[in-house]
Amino acid sequence: MTSTSAAAAARATVYGYPRQGQNRELKKAIEGYWKGRTTADALRATASDLRRANWQQLAEAGIDEVPTGDFSYYDHVLDTTVMVGAVPERHRGAVDADALDGYFAMARGTQEVAPLEMTKWFDTNYHYLVPELGPDTVFRANPAKQVAELKEAIALGLTGRPVLVGPVTYLLLAKPAPGVPADFEPLTLLDRLLPVYAEVLADLRAAGAEWVQLDEPALVEDRTPAELNAAERAYRELGTLTDRPKLLVASYFDRLGDALPVLAKAPVEGLALDFTEAAAAHLDALAAVGGLPGKRLVAGVVNGRNIWINDLQKSLSTLGTLLGLADRVDVAASCSLLHVPLDASAERDIEPQILRWLAFARQKTAEIVTLAKGLAQGTEAITAELAANRADLASRANSPITRAPAVRARTEAVTVTDARRAQPYAERAAAQRAHLGLPLLPTTTIGSFPQTGELRTARADLRAGRIDTSGYEERIKAEIQEVIAFQEKTGIDVLVHGEAERNDMVQYFAEQLTGYLATQHGWVQSYGTRYVRPPVLAGDISRPEPMTVRWTSYAQSLTAKPVKGMLTGPVTMLAWSFVRDDQPLGDTARQVALALRDEVRDLEAAGTSVIQVDEPALRETLPLRAADRPGYLTWATEAFRLTTAGVRPDTQIHTHMCYAEFGDIVQAIDDLDADVISLEAARSHMQVARELAAHGYPREAGPGVYDIHSPRVPSAEEAAALLRTGLKAIPAERLWVNPDCGLKTRGWPETRASLENLVAAARTVRGELPAS
Q: How far is CA 260 from CA 246, 304, 757, in A?
């Protein structure tokens, strides 16, 4: 096919779409089911309605081929585990008794059985459920969900393309099951898994699929020769099947690198590539392998992870270059639109001019359709769209919102000394022990306490004008009093004020910093039914006035025990926002760090002796390619130290991280120079404690003993067992006792019971320590 005919054939598609609905109907239905207020049939009906609405919106917008199978009650990797029959033995009884309840048991656990481990999906804030595999794993095809959803789309008269997690990525994301040696490599199960995928593909073809998309984002990471050989073998075997649909192998989040020639030569009909991350490198690499003769190329030229409008002319230029490299070039977003909110037009509080700079899922869909039209029919067919796009891009570039000279001058004046504590850790630790007087194995929590219905009602009443500010603040005071009283009664050593006044750990600060925009409906799935509204980082950042001092000081006035000041760190403020794309991330991080540095100093001046600066996104934001990591870690760790380095030696700096592969960044954790770090460890069975010990981490650490993402209440014996495991890696004088993460999403009954058990476990294990 010539480049002219390739252009004429160009079509618009997407890899996936937000699941929740305009008003988070899915979240409400699932949580209603968990609480017994919604039946399983009603939940399924809600899910079906949302899928139908999504597909119809896509089709009406001009999308030629809609994704199916990307919809999920909880997580698409968990759906894949069900599809291939890799249900852990401890969950099989629940799954056999009731497939839906068994599914949620794997995701959340029950009082009797622990859930699957949860961690970040590559370098995003989406969390997936980690498959547990071992040498005895038996795979069995169960594509009922995928087949049914394809048939739903076909019944609507639509062309559906099932989207599956590819077999190589699935195995590379998996971990050894409990009791399986840690050196077991799930990829060794590939030959056992491929026949199951072959059966699934045959069933999808029989159901009417012309194409099936197999997502292989793991191949954009650095891969060993053995892993690349596995990918080659997988797609040679699947590609030579006779009873299958056409195969589109998709990658995203970065360039393919050494995996590109492997997939380019594979006997599959198409590749989907990300041309927003390192686009020039991807273009050169694609040309170097001779293009994709005879194949379909789906070009991801619209950023599926950020919310800024596309530069249509630039994307058309990229697409034009690609026309000579494949038989057919289609247009798509760079990845699933799961990672952006649904519709920018729903926002009413953002200035209309600024709103034109933003593209959520529906707006990105329109951009994709426009680009496909321009590619197929020529730029004269989209003249008006190009003119409007140029005007919007210029409006943003020239806006005074984006640049604050005073902020830039302060940032440029930062020196190396500004990001370094004046005293070495050993000196600081002695001063902090003397000042705080804590016992061995001190207990604390991560920061937030349950956000009660009364508190949410009070916040809604304030927004609606049903109560005034003083009435709302009285509610906040009552919540703080309850949280402090409970912690004192339970015997926790370092208290928190519970964050009753905060809506979200990033949004709360964003709303008080210049340069940020907040949305009202910009919900994005983080995990399961947990949705967040990432703020939009639109301009230079500064802090007009203190943000946390008042409520931290109030809490401290209620107790003689230390109350932690709680802040969100600069890297997380970037990672969990939609960050500006018009300057280097390190520059933005430095601006945020300086604003937070002012807050840290004000907290210390107000008498706060323990200050926690959370950085759960430090690992999440780690570049997927090893060559890109040193530069990132340099500015990321510097930003944390810039935030925290200006305090006295007896002020104890904490940080917190959760749900990530910490072993990849142990040196960076060390480089933060925090006095204490708390980390998720309950689901991963204290793996991080062993990783810290292997590194020789010299400071204090609190690997979590209470999994807060499950409704189950761990017993005191269970928590004590985890503590004893932690003590094998971290000496008692440096080990803290805490939950995995904040308690905002939990209810008070389970929180009370779990923390009482946590404190009891600490007391038990303290009693087992040898006398000093």
A: 19, 21, 52
